[in-house]
Amino acid sequence: MSSKMKLVSLGLCAAAVGCGTDGSEGAGSDVPAGSVNVAQGGAQDISQFRALVKAGKVPALDTLDPVGFFAEHAIDLPDADCGKDVCVHPFLAVAPRFNEGNWTMAFVAMNTAVDPSSLDRPPVHLAIAVENSRFAGIDESALDAGMGGLLESLRPEDRVSVIRYGERVERRAFLAAPESAELARLIADERLGGGAGELVGLYEGIAAAEKAFDEGDAAGFEGAHRVLLLTSGHATSGITDPDRILGLGEALVENGTAFGVIGVGESFLVKIPSALGSMGAGTYAYALSPGDLGGLLSEEGKTTLFPLATDFSLEVTPSAGYKVGRIYGATRATASAAGAALEMPALFIGQRDGATDVGGSRRGGGGGLFVELLADASLADDIGPDKAAFQVTAGWTSAKDGAGQNVDTTLLNALPPGQNPESRWWNISDGSSGKPYMMLNMYLALRGALDFYQAGDCRRSLGVIEMMKPSVGGWLGKYSDRDIQDDNNLMLMLRQNIEEACRASQSSTEPTPPFDFDGGCGWL
């Protein structure tokens, strides 16, 4: 008997993912009914980064995806009892920086009381668009095995269309039943992947998937629509403008179509796939190997997606005495001194058959929007403690009944603007362990080390990690958490790799802590 587990559906990861809200951080317990975390769209892991570090290498900075990093962590939120389809939870942390300055950081996370296991799964018309080019370099055996696993996981009432795109676009199957002889022959006889050409009509491939939903008998299909795109990220023929490609994907999602992206190929270009993956409408993952591709495809058939909301928007507006600085955690978020904004064409929730845990010690499902608040300490006396630090407003259209829903809430700072806690420990608005902020600190330490290393500054690259070690050690001494412990192990492995690489290049390996580091790590 297969088990079922609730999933974050804003960019489902390809491995089994859970979204915990049970109050036991880092534990591998099941998710209680009625509280499913809603994370930002985009990558749901940093598997490529971890694999490179484990192999003894110093990865390129772009392999450390912030959304994927945060999504690997479990974050326990208050119950989703707000009475709306989406519940918005704001938090605030205040701590001294490494250079004794002030670090004030807002964090906004979301969850929902909608239980996907209580929803009836409709028939699904799945349009699979497979790139056929030398950039993709898809292993045909892995593709065949993955497609076979995907079809086995679908239901008899589902339908499948298959598009091959590259130099030209070809529809290889249309509205076929998963167990049909047509699809069996396609997998056995056709070469869908591979290809040696350099012309890739990515826009045209997506457009062909959209067209498959509207033509002939497909126009009368009573069920859900879903696109699965296998792409190298290259767009070299036809319409190549990234904005137009993304616009086509967003139009599909706004109409309720789930949209998953699997990156392939050693020359993978992340820009367009990442933007498509950040729409919040399905899987976004990169296949590290042929075996990985097969596994990703097989998991797709086990996943059911349900639209939760459309036209979602969220704004974080600083109160008097603050302005917005850097933002982290949401690919689609934008910021100015006046505020931070996040817009999503749709939010989905999902469920995967056969999944019982995240794998290893992680429940996953974490993430949210981090917004740095730059406080004006000169206004501290005028504003004082327990005054507003920021306001969160959000609005969306319910996918259930088409009604508009909105949230408007303000969070207070127990301290005056720019004032640090008297202790060396940070001040957390809800009195918790502050795990989201520890996650952010770990990400910034990894990113800072890579930044300095790529700039040729080995001393400060190693210094960032040395500066961070007492902080994470102090936090782990107070809170037992497997996610943060795993981050720490990763950071120490990266330090060893950087040190060995610097020795090989005859650079100094004497750590120099950059106390003026602008990443924003808090001092614990």
Report on the structure:
- With 524 residues, this protein is an alpha+beta fold.
- The chain has two domains: 284 residues, Gamma-adaptin ear (GAE) domain (Immunoglobulin-like), CATH 2.60.40.1230; 183 residues, 3-Layer(aba) Sandwich (Rossmann fold).
- 29% of the residues lie in helices and 27% in strands.
- It contains twelve helices and 18 strands.
- Strands 1, 11, 13, 14, 16 and 17 form a six-stranded antiparallel beta sheet that branches. Strands 2, 3, 4, 12, 15 and 18 form a six-stranded antiparallel beta sheet that branches.
- A hairpin with a 5-residue loop joins strand 16 and strand 17.
- It is globular, with a radius of gyration of 23 Å.
- The N terminus is likely disordered.
